[in-house]
Give the backbone structure.
Amino acid sequence: MSDTSLRTPLRPLSRILPARARGENTDQIEKDNIRKRHEQDREMGRATAQSRIILVGLIFVCLYLIIAVRVAALSASEASEPRTYTAGSSIVEQRRDIVDRKGRILATNMNTYSLYVEVPHLVDPVGTAKALADVFPDLDQERLIKDFTGKRKFLWIKKKLSPEQKQAAHDIGDPGLRFGPREMRLYPNGKLAAHVMGGASFGKEGVAAAEVIGVAGVEKTFDQALRDPSLSGKPLQLSLDLSVQAAMEQVLYGGMKLMNAKGAAGVLMDVHTGEVISIVSLPDFDPNQRPHPPVEGHPDDSPLFNRSVQGVYELGSTFKIFAVAQAMDLGLIDPETMIDTKGPIKWGRFRINDFHNYGNQLTASKVIEKSSNIGTARIAQMIGTDRQQEFLRKLGLLDPIEFEMIEASGGKPLLPPKWSDLSTMTISYGHGLSTTPLHLAAGYAAIANGGHKVTPTLIKTSTPTLGPRVMSENTARQSVDMLRRVVTEGTASLGNVEGYAVAGKTGTADKPDPRGKYYKDKVIATFATIFPADEPKYALVVTLDEPTDTTGPEPRRTAGWTAVPVAAEVISRVAPLLGLRPRIESQESAAISQSE
């Protein structure tokens, strides 16, 4: 059926034809029909208009409600700056802060800018190159001109700018110079704790953002955790005390200069928790401008070298207390046992001598006090090679320390290729085995805390974390008493600090030369201490590389004259900062004696 058949006829023929047959006037019928059709059209138009008005009204009501809800949400939220999302927005930013044990900032972030060039947009390539060379003297002007007038489309100028540099570059006015936002790592304390911080650099980069990654120290060790967005806003808290670190660095620097030393290292550790309160290596550097690694020379010639955790040295007579402590713990001797000190001890072509002639016998306590190599070697013979190795391994002196610095993996102790009977004797007084100052501090901490192994840590902890027992509490106490007499009556008399009972042991070891022999006039001088001796809380190790005291008529290199006074000054400076109250001792301090 066609559409035409469905239409309503314009003329009502069913009414018109009958009316016409009856002779009636049909005009009125047509008029009525037209009027009805117009009324129907008007009614349909009115209904359509009403529907449209209602629909438009509903749309406006919905839009109003959406706007009202959004306004309410914004008014209830915290105000923030709008962010511009670009191609670099996928780069993770906002590296976490690093703070000391009291929450003071050690490393944080700073917003700055990078400078790059879009070469096709340069108006005056040559003039801009000359102007940039004036602003940045380290840039090669001829190289810039070559790049700006060549085929390059893009060129980095500076990855980070100071506000003054940015303004100077902006004032050049060339539209080809572009600035990109940057987040850079800032170390507000400069060189302070430089080796611990290590430093950071840029990883993944874009013109609108750059990823900051750690390259050394704790920045490298905790790199993933510091970049973890889920931990954003929660700083990494270290065990370091910023005030103590500053004091220790200052004293060690002064001591290094005064004693004409090549370098210095220091470790201060809580003997109950293993927390490293301060760790120093000199010379150091500014992590804000970390230098490049050296390509020649000896590693420890570089300020990047960390002597405290990478420096593997023979630490001399500081090891003697370990031999005596082990012998006491095994029941072989006690502090008053007489030890044969007649010498020299001959072993093949080797001879073991003492610094002075101490007679035929000394008590075990006097062996430590006088620092007798012969007496210690005799005690080591009683212990034997296997038991000596086992004890030193329990103390952690034969293996790398699992410490939260990437460099610690390089501090692997150097053991004799064949641990012979001769090695057993020489190792007992600190020759033939090389370890780091950090190892030594952990060993002395085990003696100080009553005989438990200590694992050093750079992370703040609130509870003691003592390891397995390595010696009895009585042995540890007797060992501390012996070390105390070294300071009051023996080789470390310059280590007395008024108000603080210091216990410790000196160590002077000849420094090996590149040929595998020893220098005649170069030593590693070390003083390992425990304080306060009556209630031990801290272990301190101070090491000087190639020191020479020139204040006397002849040069003096032994630890008693070099490392000991420096360590004593460190203790006098940091003890009050650690909250230790001075105590008045009844006995008089010993007079200065010849030191080993």
